[in-house]
Design goal:
By secondary structure, the protein is of the alpha+beta class. The chain has three domains: 388 residues, 3-Layer(aba) Sandwich (Rossmann fold), CATH 3.40.50; 81 residues, Immunoglobulins (Immunoglobulin-like); 114 residues, Immunoglobulin-like (Sandwich), CATH 2.60.40. It has seven helices and 43 strands. The strands form 13 sheets. Strands 6, 7, 8, 9, 11, 13, 14 and 17 form an eight-stranded mixed beta sheet that branches.
Length: 605
């Protein structure tokens, strides 16, 4: 065949093309091996789709086809973490993502890369392309999410599941697994790796149609703890509008090698599939997404842009869609249970066209159950997402805030007799958030004093408690505790007269009054400091054994200033310091000042 092997694209990318038409392209994943997974990936080396759009689908086309571009612009997966789990990894995964984003005109992001078993000793080109696909398209659908790439050192189940656990431990709330291997008896032993609360696990259903009986399915997609993604053929024009080519029944049909069928391991219909199918076993897939390599998506690897298909295309994009849902929810998606709950009427069976494109044409085999039909089927499951409706349906607006709890601050308080304490109340809604605006509150107290309309508690003169302070709004109330305590014994001092005039060489007498409070009855020892130099002071009595004491100050004579007889102005302050025999911590003081012929005494506390 003739080959146009290196059509140069913008930014140095090369698109590998061939003019010959190949029905499915080249399988990248290799053969099935028990206990090992393969990437569920096809590379189209001769991309020709029914609309002749001259190349792989771009993020813009896919986002438009599934209604992602019709979501609120703020729904980007912000605050969410998507775990991409692959074997061997891609050494150039970050630079490949940067080139992908530059080529398609979207912002890149910095990847978080984990090697839970150490950096693999060898690489694998198929797994590297798989890793590039998963990272680039998860980011294209949820550009605001953090991408965690957890790389297993080999394709063994034990290493891959260890990488799954590592991604969850790193904070991923949705895990993409674009790989699988044929079911075998006992494989359900590994299901414990998919049961972390609050984490959704997504896997590709397989690229070999219905496998040979008895094990028709690929695992982990067959696990009921995993959302299984089947494949479709999707027909779009150059801007992402759906089109129906001549001779094709619909814009999206079942892909002829999409994995699907009946499990031979899980012998029970999962509760979420009740009514949707009656086989008595777990059936696959749950949902679907574009997978046909003839209508594949663009993936950058090194300097080349490839057209890639396989159910590997759908797993990372469904994982990204779930991160969009989780961003909009108050609690994380519960995987299949939530998806089937909004899919429609299982007994009709009718798929809700608002949330899913019901794929009803195409097949992956010749058995009666290998054909896509109206309602749930074993080729495309519930169908493909109508994202602009599906995300709001899975993340309905929160119910209006309802007052559920009231907290009172402080929660406990000790208030002295006849003192006050301000209490405040805050109302919270069912989501644990403060009400906005806050409701009005009524206040009550079980004893020990009174409380005002604003929550100001006034303690009685008698100690007691604890008493209960209650703030109420409607039927909701919050409580606090208050205890009324006795104030410590104390006293204050007053000095009379406030001031006197006295000539030098004479005396002045002041009366000091001890004013007890809260039962104070101790004796008070008084002293004076800071009085004018040359003066003498005497307290009578001292210690004061009653409420009254007096002290006499004798003011010394003037000294001369220079050669004249003018007196030198003098001023000073004096403090009366009590020394109570009882435990009194605060000193009480009076001041004395003198200027020429006058001495002033005042109480300064």
């Amino acid at each position: 065949m003739t080959t146009n092997s290196s059509c140069r694209l913008a930014l140095g990318l090369l698109l590998c093309l061939s003019t010959a038409v190949m029905a499915q392209g080249v399988r990248v994943g290799g053969a099935l091996r028990r206990g090992f997974a393969r990437p569920l990936l096809f590379l189209n080396v001769s991309p020709h789709d029914a609309t002749a759009n001259l190349g792989p689908y771009s993020p813009k086309q896919i986002r438009h086809a599934y209604g992602i571009d019709a979501l609120n612009a703020g729904i980007t997966g912000a605050g969410q973490k998507i775990g991409i789990v692959d074997a061997y990894g891609d050494p150039s995964v970050q630079s490949d993502l940067n080139t992908f984003c530059s080529y398609y005109g979207i912002s890149s992001t910095t990847l978080q890369i984990l090697y839970p078993q150490g950096v693999p000793a060898t690489g694998d080109s198929g797994w590297a392309l798989e890793t590039a696909l998963d990272v680039q398209w998860a980011h294209a659908i949820a550009p605001g999410a953090t991408i965690i790439v957890s790389v297993a050192k080999s394709a063994s189940y034990s290493d891959l599941l260890g990488a799954v656990d590592a991604a969850v431990q790193a904070g991923a709330t949705v895990i993409s697994m674009s790989w699988g291997g044929q079911e075998f008896a006992g494989v359900n032993f590994y299901d414990s790796h998919f049961q972390t609360a609050g984490v959704t696990y997504v896997a590709s259903s397989g690229d070999s149609g219905e496998l040979a009986a008895p094990y028709e399915l690929e695992w982990p997609a067959s696990s009921p703890y995993v959302v299984s993604v089947g494949g479709t053929t999707l027909y779009l024009d150059s801007i992402g509008n759906r089109v129906v080519p001549l001779g094709i029944p619909s814009s999206e049909t079942a892909w002829s090698t999409s994995g699907g069928g009946i499990s031979a391991v899980y012998h029970a219909v999962p509760s979420f599939q009740t009514g949707w199918q009656t086989t008595g076993w777990r059936t696959v897939p749950d949902v679907s997404y574009v997978a046909d390599p003839n209508t594949g998506v663009g993936v950058v690897k090194g300097p080349y842009l490839y057209e890639v298909g396989g159910t590997s295309v759908g797993a990372p994009q469904w994982a990204a869609l779930i991160s969009l849902v989780n961003q909009s929810r108050s609690s994380r998606l519960a995987g299949n249970s939530d998806l089937y709950a909004i899919a429609g009427n299982p007994t009709a069976p009718n798929i809700n066209p608002a949330n899913f494109f019901d794929i009803s044409s195409g097949s992956n085999g010749s058995d009666p159950d290998d054909f896509a039909t109206t309602g749930y089927d074993l080729v495309t499951g519930l169908g493909s997402p109508v994202v602009n409706n599906l995300v709001p349906a899975l993340a309905p607006p929160p119910a209006p805030s309802v007052l559920t709890t009231i907290t009172v601050a402080p929660a406990t308080a000790s208030v002295r007799t006849s003192a006050t304490q301000q209490f405040t109340a805050t109302g919270y809604d069912q989501y644990g958030q403060p009400m906005n605006p806050q409701p009005s509150f009524s206040w009550s107290v079980s004893g020990g004093g009174t409380i005002s309309l604003s929550g100001l508690f006034s303690a009685a003169a008698t100690p007691g408690g604890p008493f209960t302070v209650t703030a109420t709004s409607g039927v909701v109330s919050g409580k606090a505790s208050v205890t009324v305590t006795t104030a410590p014994a104390d006293f204050s001092l007053s000095v009379s007269p406030a001031s006197q005039s006295v000539s030098r060489g004479n005396t002045a007498t002041y009366t000091v009054t001890v004013l007890p409070s809260n039962g104070f009855s101790g004796a008070v020892t008084l002293s004076l400091s800071g009085q004018p130099s040359g003066s003498t002071v005497k307290f009578t009595p001292n210690p004061a054994t009653s409420a009254l004491s007096s002290f006499t100050e004798s003011i010394g004579k003037w000294r001369r200033w220079r050669s004249g007889d003018e007196p030198v102005p003098k001023s000073s302050s004096a403090s009366i310091t009590p020394n109570a025999r009882s435990s009194v911590s605060t000193a009480r003081a009076a001041s004395v000042s003198s200027a020429r012929t006058r001495s002033d005494v005042s109480n300064t506390r």
